[in-house]
Amino acid sequence: MRFEDLLRPTPKGLYCPPGDFYIDPVRPVERALITHGHADHARPGHAHVMATPETLDIMGIRYGETFAGATQAAAYGETVAVNGVTVSWHPAGHVLGAAQIAVEMDGTRIVASGDYKRRRDPTCASFEPVDCDVFITEATFALPVFHHPDDRGEIAKLLASAAQFPERTHLVGAYSLGKAQRVIALLREAGYAETIYIHGAMQKLCDYYVSRGVELGPLAPATDDDADRDRFAGAIVIGPSAAFADRWARRFPDPISCYASGWMRVRQRVRQMGVELPLILSDHCDWDELTDTIREIGPQEVWVTHGREEALVRWCELNQIRARPLNIVGYEDEAE
Amino acid sequence: MKGFADLLDRLVLTPSRNAKLTLLTGYLAATPDPDRGYAIAAITRDLDILSVKPAMVRALVAERVDEVLFAYSYDFVGDLAETVSLIWPATEGRASDLPTLSQIVETLQSASRSDGPRLVERWLDELDPSGRYALLKLITGGMRVGVSARLMKQALADYGGEDVAEIEELWHGLTPPYQPLFDWLDGRADKPANLAAAPFRPAMLANPVDLDELARYDPADYSAEWKWDGIRVQATGERGERRIYSRTGDDISGAFPDLLAAMEFDGAIDGELLVGHVEDGAIRTGTFSDLQQRLNRKTVPAKLQKQYPAILRAYDLLQEGGEDLRPLPFEERRARLERFVADLPSDRFDLSPLVAFESWEEVAQMRNAAPDPVIEGLMLKRRDSAYVPGRPKGPWFKWKRDPFLVDAVLMYAQRGHGKRSSFYSDYTFGVWTGPADDPLLVPVGKAYFGFTDEELKQIDKFVRDNTIERFGPVRSVRAEPDKGLVLEVAFEGLNRSSRHKSGIAMRFPRISRLRWDKPPGEADRLETLEAMLE
């Protein structure tokens, strides 16, 4: 069967005609398979949603229990038949519950990897490569300038700065789902035992991670309390970066704005965002990890979506690997 | 190299002066000699090393990286040194033996031009991305990290617990990596003697003053002179060596070769550098715009030197031959200065005249009625004051003329940095132009201070409540004849500018008052500002 007959890009997202379902659709559809809980991939309003139990829980936390007409949980390793198409679920290493979805029919298998990363993350299961004919890869950091450094070095930078400026608050911007919990877990691994203050928007997700067995140590809400602002001096506070531009940030004494993201590799981005202490921490693959993964899986064809498609397609051409960009709109990479 | 690269990364992103000092003193304390000395010289751009052209760096990277992928990357990153530092393929077995900053600098000091590519390639292989970036900035001469020589001297002073004036005085007798300086700062040796000819003598500065404060002093104890609106400099000649220093001790001789050539004297004059032509036997001062033609240039074409000759208007004499005049009373130094300047070429040097007065009220009037547009106020100097470095309270005062004021309309607001990152605190404002029945705002300046914390909150709220469009950290706000915020803006002067749509550039604009009471339609028009240019 032609690959496009099994899975094809449409304006609503990746569509499987024989199975009559979409993967990570950007508009409401009848049947959706969701790779992970980030808002651009997991949208509310579908009639039927299949995802890992964690992703379903996360969607429930973010959108309320009525985010879909009906839900169906599929754990890692599980295989489900959808209208005669075989669908299996495999860890993607991106955030808690993130899955690659393998779609198979008549001996042809396509893997939609969603967002993924290869390095160890104490807050979620590691990526598992799956044999396939077509590997669909994201391209968020698909430029050869992106090399994410060792996580431990980045966390050490934050701790060193906290020691150097003990009178100031270190305000760490981090995506509420995944990045925030990973930063906290990495701080704990580095031996940081102080209370970490978190923005209200992160409370439920942190609680959920803890309920799933992820150790986050002592957390407290970064609530405004005029009488006790001193507690923020020397503290580490984690919140969504948008909140830093907001009045919310004014409660902290002379804050140093930090931001945990793969974009922090590029100084111009750092400056644009007014960040003083960039922490290069990404939940996506860097360039070498993307190209190594393609080599390791060795598919007949690579489909490239959201990000710098043209560069990864160029690399595939240089390495005699068939590749095409999917050009699906609606996925954002800015908040990473 | 790692410590230096990390320091650059932090400095570039740190807006606060105090935080920069913390980073610099931390680096000085943690870094061995001679690395830290070379690091200082690299940042203040006092290193004399082999430099390479960006084209050579591009050629090196073209051998390693596909040109299409490089082009995509350069397009995304926007800076050549940064793109190359990130895209350079890592070599196996790095990390063990990184080159130190000293090794790199010392190699480059003795390298020939033809060695360049081979050396740079080897180091790019050996260093990590941050190190590569620091290396490329170092050798392409693009080291801009927001640290002035003055700030660096302050960091050295903080590090060693010494007065910054002492470091300024020593500075020009020292060469990288400044070992005798560190030996002194670390308490291992005495303060090094300044053996260099024509050293900088730390400048004496004045405090601002007003009528209320002056009432406490006796007018008879003070003499007054005009405060000229040029650049305050120290012109020094000794044993054939000549230098022109800025008031912070930066050597700016290179920008004023015409004045330097005329400095055939042995002594040190404190004065104002201006441009001007001789007319009827006296120097006629050029405007600040004229002076700007001569500023911030590495080389000065002969035509510019002729069109805008640099001159020195003398205020004070600090040294005459072998004699240090600084301990003498101002009156005595002034008498010596008058004799000294009389012997100098009159097309390049003249005296800043003293201004007679009886009372402070008279001074108050004079400062707003100066005889020359290039005067920005009055200086008051105690007749018995010795010349001491820094800004002592009492002996010298400056009293600027009242600033110009204009009512402008807030057009754009940008988020601030650091403490102000949650506030829209940088304001672009405009005045009206075009027909009276269909006026249009044209931006005339940008200001980010002059308001209180409380006013900042009020403007921030106005910006958030009246946003029309967002462009990254910038918002445009409602600015119509009957809806918007009028800012009273104070400024020191106007220059013509071809870079601005309005054709004018304000000097030192700041917000002086918020005019919530005033409808934007009644704010000033561009014609008002244009009239001030004349």
How would you describe this structure to a colleague?
The complex is a heterodimer of chains A (336) and B (534). A seven-stranded mixed sheet of chain A has the order 7-8-9-10-11-18-19, with helices on one face. Chain A has a six-stranded mixed sheet with strand order 1-2-3-4-5-6. By secondary structure, chain A is α/β, with parallel strands linked by helices. The mean pLDDT of chain A is 94. Helices cover 24% and strands 26% of the residues of chain A. Chain A has two domains: 3-145 and 284-325, Ribonuclease Z/Hydroxyacylglutathione hydrolase-like (Metallo-beta-lactamase, Chain A, 4-Layer Sandwich), CATH 3.60.15.10; 151-279, Rossmann fold. In chain A, strand 8 and strand 9 form a beta hairpin. The longest helix of chain A is centred in the middle third of the chain and has 14 residues, at 151-164. With 534 residues, chain B is α+β, with helices and mostly antiparallel strands. Among the domains of chain B are: 207-400, 2-Layer Sandwich (D-amino Acid Aminotransferase, Chain A, domain 1), CATH 3.30.470; 404-533, Beta Barrel (OB fold (Dihydrolipoamide Acetyltransferase, E2P)), CATH 2.40.50.140. Chain B is 35% helix and 24% strand. Chain B is built from 20 helices and 21 strands. In chain B, strands 3, 4, 5, 6, 7, 8 and 9 form a seven-stranded mixed sheet that branches. In chain B, strands 13, 14, 15, 16, 17, 18 and 21 form a seven-stranded antiparallel sheet that branches. Chain B has a five-stranded mixed sheet with strand order 1-12-11-2-10, with helices on one face. In chain B, a hairpin with a 2-residue loop joins strand 5 and strand 6. The mean pLDDT of chain B is 92. The chains are: A alpha/beta (336), B alpha+beta (534).
